[in-house]
Every structure is written in C-alpha cells, then in structure tokens.
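Exercise 3.2. Students should predict the tertiary structure of the chain below and write it as structure tokens, then compare their answer with the key that follows.

Predict this chain's 3D structure.
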Amino acid sequence: MQIKGFMMALARFMAILGGIVLCLLIVLTCVSILGRILNGFFHGDFMEGIAPGFSSWMIAIGVGPVNGDFELVEAGVAFAIFAFIPLCQITAGHASVDIVTNMLPSGFNRFLRMVIEVIFAFVLVLIAWRLYDGMMSKRGYGETTFLLQFPIWWAYAFSFFAAITGAIVGVYMGLVRTYEFFSGRIVIGDGMEAEL
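Answer key:
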C-alpha cells in the first residue's frame, strides 16, 4: 500500500472513531438530560400527590442524570477533537481565507502552503509532546475525577493517541507540501477526500 493511501486510511479510521465517540457522547447527554427531567418530575408535587409509591420506586431504581456525565463528555470530546484533526489535515479541510492568495502566483501559493503545513506539523508535534507530559504528570500524582474516580491520565492517554496520529499525518503533509514546492508537482490536492 502506498504511503498516501495508508495515511488517508489512518485519517479516515481516526475520524470514524472520533465520530463514534461523539455519537455515544450525544446519546449519553440525551439520556442524562432525560433522567434529570424525569427525576425532577418524580420529585415534583404532582407525582408525589397522585402516585407517591410509583414516584419513590422510580427514584429508588435510579431514574436521574447519569453520574459523572460531564466528566465523560469532557474526556470524550477532547479525544474526538484530536481524532478529527488527521482527516482535516490531509484533506486541507481547515478554515482558510484565500481572498488575497487567489490573486498571487501559484509558486507563491505553493510556498505559502508549504510554510503553513510545516508550522502546523510543528504545532501538532508540540501538542502531542505536551499531552504526553501532562499524561505522565497526572499519572504520577494519581489524580482522579471527582465523581467517577477514574484516573485522569486515562483521558490524556486517549487524547495523546489521537494527537500522535494527528502529528504523524501533519508531519507527512509537511513533507508532501515541501516536495510539492520544490518539484512543482501536486501530490495531494485540496479536498483529496472528494477525489477518492
């Protein structure tokens, strides 16, 4: 398999994984909100007045918000953001304002793309490195979340895994754009995902 195909497959895999996590977080949030609403309803004067036994039973079986939902959402959204970066990077899907650059020569635009991709690669590597340091620090201190009491470094580890993937794809794209600048050939066009 070519490296270009491998990088695209890796980026797609991470995006799908991030999408699955995001969908699960949406379901978790909806269930938690519904539980919070039902809990308030069963605690209300209306239900206590017409069906106190049923109301107490529903509360006793645990109808209410999901315990630690915000802790899970916080960790999951961080992972999802990092998981989407590789696909966004390889397809040039980041937001850009190219009103001025469209009027510039193509050689200058290739140079600008190379510089931006190299800087982006550096930043992605820096973020992955700092996430690693943060993960090791949290692991060393044994810090846990408030409600669920799971080690915080687990969330850092998932985000670090996704950030490493983003850094690998970022470095690859920096090398591709550098090659494109010096050779004058386009290896990966903008919006490559649409071309495949």
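Discussion points: The radius of gyration is 23 Å. The helical segments are 3-43, 45-50, 52-60, 69-90, 106-141, 152-183, 192-195.
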